[in-house]
Automatic annotation (TrEMBL):
It is a lipid-anchor; GPI-anchor. This is Phytocyanin domain-containing protein. Belongs to the early nodulin-like (ENODL) family. The keyword Protease does not apply. It comes from Lithocarpus litseifolius. Pfam families: Cu_bind_like (PF02298). Residues 1-29 form the signal peptide.
Length: 176
């Protein structure tokens, strides 16, 4: 009877590991990008007005990623291309002035961000984020380091790991 129990346990463990590996393969990761790194979302120096677009072009954004804007006495707006070029928006798609704004990139294509404070956009406080479609998918971060931390989120993978740990603990307690 003991050998049957150990054999069943081994089969169960192999089965669960296979399921876990499969779930991990299909898990989707998203990243949080901190705009401006340690400096945050501020008016750039006069000689570096393209700092945000340079930063954005060094990263690979995917659907589901988020961009975090940290700032003081400022705001961030997501606008259309025309409003971006004019540095003006009376009807932004997104507006926040809470000092710690998070925007989810929910579709492929360009997203246009500007400061909501008069004169800041003209001084370079604006950015275009290009979100890749699934066809052009490559690892987030593109192998380059951004100016801020990336936070990996994989709820499916974490759930599978917690489930596997629970099952293995249960099996181990019943075998011993």
């Amino acid at each position: 009877m003991a050998s049957f129990s150990k054999s069943s346990t081994t089969v169960l463990i192999v089965f669960l590991l296979t399921i876990f590996c499969s779930l991990h393969h299909f898990s989707v990761s998203s990243f949080e990008f901190e705009v401006g790194g340690t400096h945050g979302w501020v008016v750039p120096p006069a000689n570096d007005s393209k700092i945000y677009n340079d930063w954005a072009s060094e990263n690979r954004f995917q659907v589901g990623d988020t961009v975090r804007f940290k700032y003081r006495k400022d705001s961030v707006m997501e606008v259309n291309e025309t409003e971006y070029k004019r540095c003006n928006s009376s009807h932004p798609n997104f507006f926040s002035n809470n000092g710690n704004s998070v925007f989810r990139l929910n579709q492929p294509g360009p997203f246009y961000f500007i400061s909501g404070v008069s004169g800041h956009c003209e001084k370079g406080q604006r950015m275009i984020v290009k979100v890749m479609s699934h066809e052009e998918e490559s690892p987030s971060g593109g192998g380059k380091s951004s100016s801020g931390p990336h936070v990996a989120v994989s709820s499916l993978g974490v759930s599978a790991l917690v489930f596997l740990q629970f099952v293995l603990s249960f099996v181990a307690s019943n075998v011993i």
